[in-house]
Design brief:
Layout lengths: L7 H4 L4 H10 L1 H22 L7 H22 L3
Helix pairs in contact: 2-3, 3-4
């Protein structure tokens, strides 16, 4: 069974228009959101392959994703 993606649009659907605008108008936001999406894809790949949840590297990736999402969410709320 596929692991659902944690894209900004799926996690914050109420801000989909703001996210699209920021990606189009703010190169830094676009770059950061692309990095976030790549990291999320990497984590989902590991989950689909059954990596043990106590794996340190796996947990570090998930923590990094959470920090990135928090940072991007704050930027979304502030409009950039």
């Amino acid at each position: 069974m596929p692991i659902p993606a944690h894209t900004l649009e799926s996690d914050f659907p109420e801000y989909a228009d703001t996210i699209r605008s920021l990606r189009n108008e703010d190169l830094e936001f676009r770059s950061e959101s692309e990095s976030y999406n790549r990291l999320d894809k990497e984590i989902r790949g590991l989950e689909e392959r059954g990596v043990a949840t106590d794996d340190n590297h796996f947990n570090e990736l998930k923590i990094r994703r959470a920090h990135m999402k928090d940072h991007l969410y704050r930027r979304i709320l502030n409009g950039g």
